[in-house]
Design a protein that fits this description.
This protein has about 475 residues and is of the alpha/beta class. The protein contains 14 helices and 17 strands. The chain folds into two domains: about 375 residues, TIM Barrel (Alpha-Beta Barrel), CATH 3.20.20.80; about 80 residues, Golgi alpha-mannosidase II (Immunoglobulin-like, Sandwich), CATH 2.60.40.1180. β6, α9 and β7 form a beta-alpha-beta unit.
């Protein structure tokens, strides 16, 4: 999503939740249909979103390439590069403008570097075992886009004037997918970036505002060029995960987390939201688990440092794929979203008096990599004695079993998890997280925003003999 202010984002999230509650019968029946299969590298990975303008003091693509070893050592598997194209000048917002106001999809912003610089970034990531996805803005362009030579590519009012996709988005012009020529242009452009730069997929901006049948066209066309291409929808729309997309945004869960951590809603709302989504989406659907991205105030600002870590512990241990955003691993609190998206605010890589967050995220990433039980779509929610503050659930396969306990309040809690047999569970050591006084299962004491992950191997009957 691009350049939306907090109030507009809140409105969109509220609208998305209303849409979820008003799904048609056809959408509800999607729960009986399997989601399209996703590449193993996506399911097992952690996605890291990069805003090149802010990622380094240089603010360019070589500035990202210079830190590929740091990203590899952190453990992330997929780099999502925000738009790299030239930004429109007509009706620009801010000094630099939104990267989602694109002038030429075939070009690289000269402030970022050259096509050769981008190809070097992608090749360097591949050499280190990481994938790279580009940000695709298919819903709109800048007003001075090279595509304005084709007026039929754009939405128009009755008198024939090109219009923005949403009145508030004054720096962009809406694209019209009733135009066959536009569809051909966009598909050819995506093929270009695969063949020229060897990108591994696309994060598709405001995908819910673009016709689903276009996305299905895109998928079929790109699969012929690169069969394991990955597509991420910025949407929470069940039909998109049937044929077109591998993964979408868990917006309903993000809205719920804001309610719990900011407005003191009960922690039980997390389970309720997860179960509602599970009933609505295709079977095995994959969701991007987010607490922070370029549209949000930073999680450490919204939730506080302890609350942001508790939220991350949830996102890294639930089903789906977790997201880290641009300095999140050091607790960077630099502004993001509107209006910061239009200017340059470099990440502060050494914030004062922070917990060693990088170590925490490193260990959470490695835990997901090591244990397949944390990468399946199975989540068993467990009852506990204080569901206003505590979320508890189990992740398991035929090899390992995990129980996750997270205090989503700032107050200490004494609670008991509804487990009948707890022998063999040991607390997982996460570097940088104090041991505290939690104790063991099933009865625990957790301080405000404290969390614990417990593990035991599954003992089979044959192994026990």
């Amino acid at each position: 999503m691009n350049f939306k202010g907090t109030s507009l984002l809140a409105g969109l999230l509220a609208a998305a939740l209303m849409l979820v509650s008003a799904r048609s019968l056809a959408d509800q029946n999607l729960a009986a249909v399997p989601a399209r299969p996703s590449p193993d590298w996506l399911r097992s990975g952690t996605i890291y979103e990069i805003f090149p303008r802010d990622f380094s003091p240089a603010g360019n693509l070589p500035g990202v390439t210079a830190h590929l070893d740091d990203l590899k050592n952190l453990g992330v598997g997929v780099l999502w590069i925000m738009p790299i194209h030239p930004i429109g000048e007509k009706f620009r917002k801010g000094e630099f403008g939104s990267p989602y106001s694109i002038k030429d999809y075939y070009a690289v912003d000269p402030n970022y570097g050259t096509l050769a610089d981008f190809k070097q970034l992608v090749a360097g990531a591949h050499q280190r075992g990481m994938k790279v996805i580009m940000d695709l803005v298919a819903n709109h362009t800048a007003w001075d886009s090279v595509m304005m030579a084709h007026p039929d590519f754009y939405k128009q009012d009755a008198p024939g004037h090109v219009i923005p996709p949403v009145p508030e988005w004054t720096d962009v012009a809406g694209l019209n997918y009733a135009s066959p020529g536009l569809r051909t242009y966009m598909i050819d452009m995506l093929k270009y970036w695969i063949t020229q730069a060897d990108v591994d997929g696309f994060r598709c901006d405001v995908a819910y505002m673009v016709p689903t049948d276009f996305w299905e066209q895109v998928r079929d066309a790109l699969a012929e060029v690169k069969p394991d291409i990955m597509m991420l929808a910025e949407a929470s729309k069940p039909e998109l995960l049937k044929k077109a997309f591998d993964i979408d945004y868990s917006w309903p869960l993000l809205a719920t987390m804001n309610g719990v951590l900011i407005h003191d809603a009960p922690a039980a709302d997390v389970r309720r939201t997860w179960e509602e989504n599970h009933r609505e989406f295709p079977k095995g659907a994959l969701h991007l688990r987010i607490t922070d991205d370029h549209d949000e105030a930073r999680a450490v600002a919204r939730y506080g440092l302890g609350g942001s870590l508790a939220a991350s512990a949830l996102m890294f241990t639930l089903d789906g794929v977790p997201l880290l955003y641009n300095g999140m691993e050091v607790g960077d609190a630099t502004e993001s979203g509107d209006p910061a998206l239009f200017d340059k605010l470099t990440i502060f890589w050494a914030p004062k008096e922070r917990l060693p967050l990088r170590k925490v995220y490193h260990d959470l990433i490695q835990l997901r990599k090591q244990y397949a039980a944390l990468r399946t779509d199975r989540v068993d929610w467990l009852r506990n004695s204080d569901e206003t503050r505590l979320v508890t659930f189990r992740r398991a396969d035929d090899q390992d079993e995990f129980v996750v306990v997270i205090n989503l309040s700032s107050r200490p809690v004494n609670a008991k998890v509804d487990l009948t047999e707890t022998a063999g569970f040991q607390a997982v050591k996460i570097a940088g997280v104090p041991d505290g006084t939690a104790g063991g299962l099933p009865a625990l004491h957790l301080n405000g925003f404290e969390w614990r992950i417990f593990h035991r191997p599954v003992v089979t009957t044959a192994a026990a003999k």
